Amino acid sequence: MKLEIPEDYIAFLYWVKERTENFWSINPEHSEADFVCEKWIYGAKWIGLSDEEIDAIEHRYNISFTPEYRQFLKILHTIDKKDTIEYKSSVDKDAEIKIEHIPFFIIG
Description:
The protein is flat and about 60 Å long. Helices cover about 35% and strands about 15% of the residues. The protein has one domain. A hairpin with an 8-residue loop joins strand 3 and strand 4. The chain has a two-stranded antiparallel sheet with strand order 1-2. A two-stranded antiparallel ribbon has the order 3-4. It has 3 helices and 4 strands; from the N terminus they run αβααβββ. Helix 1 (about 10-25) runs parallel beside helix 3. The protein has about 110 residues and is α+β, with helices and mostly antiparallel strands. The two termini are about 35 Å apart.
């Protein structure tokens, strides 16, 4: 079976999105496939930025993204899975433990 990768940039981004989300939708604990996604990313979906969010970033940092990069951010900015980080607010042994939820990764 020949794999057809789109030549059009936007079609390619959606092609990546569809294939990764399909792969992530297969429960690794119940799949008999040889290659499955890791448990932490099971069920993940891509989250894109809106035009308004991209405009705000450009304004905040006084930059301009290329049209291609804007499309990338609109389609494949990050995933909806978060990692939990625990840390102390200072080096004191009785310091409060803080919990923060951050994206596993952000592209862009």
